[in-house]
Amino acid sequence: MALVGLLKNRTPSLVALQNSVEDVNTPLKRSPPLSPSMVRVLCAIHTGPWTRPLNWDLHVTHDGEPCVPFFLYVQPTPTPTRTSCSQFQKFRDFPAELQLHVVSFCDGPTLFQLMRVSSATRTLAKPLFWSCPDACFLAYAEQVEVCFDGAKYIWHDWEAGLRTGAAVMRPQRAEDLVRDFWRTVQHRFPRATRVTVRESWLRKATDPPPDEFRILIQQCPASISASASILQQGVDYQLERSLWRLAPGDTTGTIGGWERIDPSRTRQSILPPPKEFRGPVGAFERIHYHFYHHAFRKWAVRLLLIEARERHHFDGRHESFHCFDPNCEVRLQQPGEWTLHAINSGHDSKGEGPIPPEQYKASFDQLKKQLKCMEQQDVHGPMEKMRQAWGDEGSEERHNAERAFLHQLENDPLYAHGKPAKETSTWFLYERAMDPDNC
Ligand SMILES: [Zn+2]
């Protein structure tokens, strides 16, 4: 699964995540106080003043980090006034340089819409859209962010770990792994010029980026400018994500030299459109794709409930309230206090916490119904159909299904793993998903 991440300050990024299926069942429930996820959870919750309605399309990762599917990202924001066709016609009479200048002020979604208006606007908007810091999509991405839970996982063979259930180190030398890493980045993102390696683990305020990132950046290809993004805990438990680069000259191997270059960056992620789904492997991958989309919305429900409670008490009024945990004495007096307290303590799951305020009840009921429908239609239904086609052990159906799946894994470049089909994570996950014990 890959996420394309964009930053609110218009610095873009791509995040490659590798989550196992069972992660979906252990998301925010296990958030400890002041977890690394807190800072990102807070980004997903608006604590006022509120100028827009609750975002019922909110998607977040299992860490509570907000992400936006591509189809929502390029959806134009509704505006109260519409420009008539005749007014737009006048735009075409402008000199070409002026047209280009006007279009250069457009954001990603607007550029995307312009690309669909006419061949003339497409010519203007297309190069800007794909070079825009707000848009980085695989082959067109110029700025990419690669995410690791912890930097040390660079040396881990996650596919082997998936099969054995234990941490498995890759047998290659570090420099070979790093060379492969950059080769893959350049293969997948041939236009990448700026790459950020990002870590989700929480580090102390005084910690520099980990040595693994130093090794990666030191071997960065000359055509790419590389940086490291880490999460740090500062005074008063404030968490912040910081961006670092190696000082000039340090790429030759000099010790030291990390420079902090943007201590205030926050980020937003965009889910790229999926690649083509074809054949039996594609059918299985499509279920995974929908599975995560459903999970991203399901994980967002807790955050929407917290924000709904904030709005209920502090949007256009000021009604302080007691925490819903009967054993907690805290009284929430100001906007934002409930969000911090709920995330830190988990008390939003107590008492009335998980019950939406009356004004939002119908919307939450509708969201719940929608998620249930999505899950059945896009995940459970197709998976059940696939299990039926898998048949019983020793049956002809099983033989045919296995053969077709393995044949595609071996021969279809779209799903190439560079290793025998039976040793791939896709085959492992498929076999596990077909096992009725895992239903
Ligand atoms: Zn409390």
What does this protein look like?
- This protein has 439 residues and is of the alpha/beta class.
- The protein has two domains: 2-19 and 62-74 and 138-271, no CATH class; 279-438, no CATH class.
- 41% of the residues lie in helices and 15% in strands.
- The protein has a five-stranded mixed beta sheet. It has a five-stranded mixed beta sheet with strand order 5-6-7-8-9. Strands 11-12 form a two-stranded antiparallel sheet.
- Helix 5 (108-114) runs antiparallel to helix 6 and helix 10 runs antiparallel to helix 12.
- It binds zinc ion.
- Zinc ion (ZN) binds next to helix 11.
- Zinc ion (ZN) is lined by residues 323, 325, 328, 330, 341, 345, 347.
- This is F-box domain-containing protein.
Query: What small ligands are held by the chains?
Result: zinc ion
Percent strand: 5-15%
Low-confidence runs of at least 5 consecutive residues: 1-37
Shape: globular
Individual helix count:
14
Whole-number total of structural domains: 2
Number of strands: 12
Task: Summarize the topology.
Layout lengths: L1 E6 L4 E5 L21 H7 L14 E2 L5 E4 H4 L11 H9 L2 H8 L4 H7 L4 H13 L11 E6 L9 H7 L9 H15 L5 E11 L6 H8 L6 E9 L5 E8 L11 E5 L4 E5 L7 H36 L6 E2 L8 E2 L4 H9 L12 H33 L5 H16 L13 H10 L5
Parallel strand pairs: 4-10, 5-6, 6-7
Antiparallel strand pairs: 1-2, 1-10, 3-4, 7-8, 8-9, 11-12
Helix pairs in contact: 5-6, 10-12
The site of zinc ion has 7 residues, from helix 11.
